[in-house]
Structure prediction request, 242 residues.
Amino acid sequence: MTELSPSDIAKDAAAAAAVRLVENGMRLGLGTGSTAAFMVRRLAAFVKEDGLQLRCAATSKATADLAESLGMKVETLDDIGWLDLTIDGADELDPDLNLIKGGGAALLREKIVASASDRMVVMADGSKVVETLGAFHLPVEVIPFGWQTTKQLIDRMLTLMDLDGRPILQRKRDDAPLLTDEGNYILDLSLEAIPEPARLSAALNAIPGVVENGLFIGLCDLAIIGKPDGEVVELRPEGAEE
Ligand SMILES: O=C[C@H](O)[C@H](O)[C@H](O)COP(=O)(O)O
Prediction:
């Protein structure tokens, strides 16, 4: 077996702690990304060894494929209807547990699934914890029709809000636009700092052509932060009860 890097040890430790929150009979949302992949592997082993009965919806085709390859059954969100718990990764999280997500282009399904869950738990390594969101680029999912106009509208709105961060289209290695699972494009905003994430999120989503943005405001109930020594710490939104 290949040895895990310190960052992977941290991700796996967070994943292991998150999986301990899963109970028999739960309806679960499965996140996307490298940390979520550790969680899916641990969950699959748990299901196999303990015969846990779960109903799972995935936040991306990649996660559904991974879970199914490990013998788990994945259903659509509409088949399940509502979820008890969603466990996902994040690109950044602030002290209120507002998040930037979508570094793997899965933000739309991730936000729908998190919004349809009683609880959202985020797993991350310590490098993702920040005072102010924005050092990580903010992905915005836009429909392909008129995307350049949408880009201009975003640009104008950022200027009005006194924010820098010109939108850049995410492309694949062959230079073609990257397509999300929904067949949309992603525009990345390099803002450096987002002083008012809720205001920016609402302004972005009010632009025709924008489907959703990667700011997750007030959705995360608990963050489990893994450390390179395998320990974890739990963070809750400021003022929230345990
Ligand atoms: O679209 C991708 C997701 O939002 C991921 O959860 C996020 O990018 C974190 O991924 P990772 O665990 O690979 O850092």
Summary: Residues 6-130+218-229 form a domain with the Rossmann fold fold (CATH 3.40.50.1360).
